[in-house]
Amino acid sequence: MKITIASGKGGTGKSMVAANLAWALSQSDRVTLVDCDVEEPNLHLFFPPDDPESTDVQVSIPSFDNSRCTLCGDCARFCAFGALVVAKDRVLFFPEHCHACGGCALVCPAGAVTEIQRPIGTVTTRHLSAHLSLVTGTLNEGEVLGVKVIREAKRCAAKPGWLVCDASPGTSCPVVETLHGSDFCLLITESTPFGIHDLELAYSVTSCLGIPVGVVINRSDGKDEDVRKFCNERGIPVLATIPFDRWIASVQGSGDLISRVDPTWKERFIALGGACRSSVGGT
Amino acid sequence: MKICIPSRGPEIQDLVDERFGRAPYFIIHDTESKMTEAHVNSTAGAMGGVGPKAAQFLLNHGVDSLVTERVGGNALEALKAGGIRVLLYEEKGSTVADAITAFLKGNLKEQ
């Protein structure tokens, strides 16, 4: 069962729900939690420090053989990202613009382009308990190809049991890549005009991808009519409501998990996992 | 000698655009024949890499000098590699014709 935790708006509590859901489910099942917020991964902060294994994520970038290059310009004409300029006597390459598509090597009629590997990030695996692993994708500073790091993190995390992917906020490529292949998406929102506005954006993405969703209302002050109306009109189930509560904030603020501290919350998150599975027809 | 001025519009009376890669037009002026031609910058709205793309456009059109208010690092590197001089023209609110006149006077600073 692959669940992605997403939201349009930042700061709604995606990581909080992802970490609590993964921890609670891991009390009886195998769970792999994947931090796909590769520009600012932080799920490891909920768990004790350890000695993780890291591997580099590499992309293929072009290397030019000047003795073969005829300066015809085909590579630069093909490059949609402005990573190549063919000057009078050589090809200039701007690696930070390269999206590693491999097109320049394909179109070069002189065979002057070979591909070399360049690291853009890392994937780190932590074995937090017998049943719970955390896979973290980290994009190196100044790099743009977060999607490649997310893809590699998900590949490393492909194990039996529950897969819980924590997406970045927003609705663009990194979120789409995180959602790709998910059985279900939990959209985390809050009952503010901003929360509802961005929930609608996130829902439009999951609808395009054909992924079933449920909503979790976080920091609820009990006045959730607008979110519930939005969900009712679209047939989206509201699967959990987490109150706006000083105790929850203080547990969260200290880097702990409410499901680890309070058995009632552990049961609620286990029930949330069950509701996700039921929503896609699982048992 | 061919010079290029990034412009807001296609005429020499149009204002100089303060950007290079994202300028909507490139005006190319030939100082010998006095001919001027306007080109739409087809990559002005691209997501990224507009500096190198604009530099490639100038290289393909045989431009010798770029007269501009500012230029990014990648574009500058590409222009220099292609032997194109970059001359800074920082008079706010000027027209392309003003920039051509300033270039012909010969006292613009090279970047």
How would you describe what is shown here?
Chain A is an alpha/beta fold and 283 residues long. Chain A is built from ten helices and eleven strands. Chain A has helices at 14-25, 74-78, 103-107, 146-156, 173-179, 193-209, 225-234, 246-253, 258-261, 263-279, and strands at 2-6, 31-35, 53-64, 84-86, 91-93, 113-127, 132-139, 162-166, 184-189, 213-220, 238-243. Chain A has a nine-stranded mixed β-sheet, with helices on both faces. In chain A, strands 4-5 form a two-stranded antiparallel ribbon. Chain A is elongated. The N and C termini of chain A lie close together (11 Å). The mean pLDDT of chain A is 95. Chain B has helices at 50-60, 73-81, 96-105, and strands at 2-7, 25-30, 36-40, 65-68, 85-88, 109-110. The model of chain B has no long low-confidence stretch (mean pLDDT 95). Chain B has one domain (2-110): Dinitrogenase iron-molybdenum cofactor biosynthesis domain (Nucleotidyltransferase, domain 5, 2-Layer Sandwich). In chain B, strands 3-2-1-4-5-6 form a six-stranded mixed β-sheet, sandwiched between helices. Chain B is built from three helices and six strands, in the order E-E-E-H-E-H-E-H-E. The A-B interface holds A 73, 76, 79-88, 90, 92, 94, 97, 144 and B 43, 46-53, 55-56, 59-60, 74, 77-78, 81-83.
